Amino acid sequence: MAVGEQEKRERAVTDAAVASFDETKDERLREIVQSLTRHLHAFARDVRLTQEEWEAGIGFLTRVGHITDDKRQEFILLSDVLGLSMLTVGINAPAEPRATESTVFGPFFVEGAPEVALGGDISRGAKGMPCWVTGTIRDTAGNPVADARIEVWEADEDGFYDVQYDGDRSAGRGRLRSDGDGGYRFWSVRPAAYPIPTDGPVSELMAATDRSVMRPAHVHFKVDAPGHRTLITHIFAAGDPYLDSDAVFGVKESLIVEFAEHRPGTAPDGRVLDTAWSSVEFDIVLEPLS
Ligand code: BEZ
Ligand code: FE
Q: Considering the entire predicted model, what is its pTM?
């Protein structure tokens, strides 16, 4: 068959599929599904997708769905390793350059984590070197943001979140409020580098494509305050060997911070430690909603 005929036949399928959404009343939905259809068809044409490859793709997505439940979100993980999550973060980044940068949300946030008083310990049984975390929350004009809701979560020294262990134990996560000067402080553990979950279809994809599954050591933050844009971010530990090869592309230079290490002794809040401990400071700038 002439090349022109083949091209015409393929184009006709794409045109029909795109046109089938023409009557969608919701304009934004129409824009999204028509663009998605065009790009999916262009992808299939680009790689000359075989029937077997199409079936393998459907099988893969089916397994992603089957392993997903209310504690395990393999679709988010897939979006993360494809860079789609970070692209979406980038597209929606605040226009304001003074605001703290955002990064990927990840699959391990849990609604309703325990409330912890300022200066309290969010580790609650998570293993690791004690770590004193402090900072202030301000707006882009430099005003302190009092009473901001701060949610933090992190993996233990073995690289696992509480939800990855059997049982319902909550550890390494908590919710705090900033004080009247925008200050916050809590004890936790020094974070460790860890692999993204390695027991599902996404990790099979990583293995098949010879990619590293490691994430550099980090602590997650979600900060909400009325009148301000919600911030979802991490702090990353300076010097971590995986900063340049994060499996989910989440690292930003401005989010890399130094975790100091201290000999046993008295911490700034008066706590006496008989083991080495760590400390880190992270000041947060929220963008006011216009
Ligand atoms: C996380 O940092 O918790 C995470 C983010 C993306 C994929 C897997 C884990
Ligand atoms: Fe994480």
A: 0.91
